[in-house]
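Researcher: Good morning. I'm working through a list of sequences from a screen, and I'd like to move beyond sequence-only analysis. For each chain I'm collecting a predicted structure so we can compare shapes side by side. This is the next one on the list. No need for commentary yet; just the structure.
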Amino acid sequence: MSRHRVVRLLLVAVGWLSVVLGVIGIFLPVLPTTPFLLLAAACFVRSSPRFYHWLVTHKHLGPWIREYLDGNAIPLKGKVYAIGLMWLSIGFSCWLVPLPWARGFMLVSAVCVTIYILRQKTLRKA
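Model: Good morning. Structure tokens for this chain:
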């Protein structure tokens, strides 16, 4: 845990902002939920044990973090759903946004996230 008050307050603020963005990401496929919640957990573990404990034991948000931290696999259905919705929303966004550099950034981001998801272990049915 950080000893400097300013750093601790900054980490708490970034942590809560990440929680908010992660929750929004549950409903908007453009925002990734798990990375924001993992960032929040990383900020809280360094700044507030109470907030960290709240987050990892939360009824709805906790499983997103615990499954990842425990190294568990992602179900194939979840991978397909995440990648499909992401590409659908990125495609729609690219259609709406006329700026070539913005389209390029969105496409590169989507490719990187797709590669990341595909490299994660896939849960095999027993």
